[in-house]
Design brief:
Length: about 210
């Protein structure tokens, strides 16, 4: 083959390559980062006027709250610390708690719950994966474990009827209302004392969309 012929073949191959349609690859979108528990818990804007945050709780690590509580009520602090350590051993990577009360005396009560003082408490823990979170929820969050299948108790609602997904239960009584659920890689709990049902539902509705 002549040199001219070889160049014609090379040119034809080059034109053919240029005319081929090449696939366009779009970058894979990065997954949405999980919200930190400090941002997922109830914030000051989520609670009614007249409730103030307890010292040590709020948008800060769980250890800070436990340290402050240790000074006011060592017995309650020790119990909550043991339960928090159990969650860490189960795979929790972060946690936060916010306690809002109408009277500071309730700050040293377990999860702010009393029979007389208006209070709202929220806790959120993040786990490495959904399996760890689900096992922790089944084991119980601060001693509140899902009821056995078929259990019927006044004020108890389990599963999707709570509005918080299949891994959830709520307990509704006039003085204390509680919700405990697992969503994605989180477990969450809300305890509302001496406040109405609308306020309770507003609290769970504020937290649930943050558990991504």
């Amino acid at each position: 083959m002549t040199r001219f012929g070889s160049r014609l073949i090379l040119l034809a191959l080059l034109v053919a390559c240029q005319n081929q349609t090449h696939a366009v690859f779009s970058p894979v979108p990065s997954p949405t980062p999980h919200m930190a528990p400090t941002a997922a818990i109830l914030q000051s804007a989520d609670v009614p006027t007249g409730l103030n945050v307890c010292l040590g709780s709020g948008p800060m690590p769980m250890d800070v709250y436990l340290s402050v509580l240790q000074n006011s009520d060592p017995a309650v602090a020790s119990m909550l610390s043991d339960q928090w350590l159990a969650m860490l051993k189960s795979g929790a990577t972060a946690g936060a708690i916010s306690v809002f009360v109408a009277n500071a005396t309730a700050c040293k009560s377990e999860l702010g719950a009393t029979t007389t003082v208006k209070a709202m408490t929220s806790f959120v823990a993040e786990f490495a994966d959904t399996s760890q979170a689900d096992r922790a929820w089944e084991a119980g969050v601060f001693g509140f474990a899902p009821p056995p299948p078929g259990q019927l108790s006044p004020g108890l609602t389990v599963g999707t009827s709570t509005g918080l997904g299949p891994s959830s239960f709520t307990y509704d009584r006039p003085s204390v209302r509680l919700a405990c659920w697992r969503r994605s890689v989180y477990v969450a709990i809300v305890v509302v004392s001496n406040l109405d049902l609308t306020t309770f539902r507003a609290a769970t509705a504020a937290i649930d969309p943050r558990l991504n």
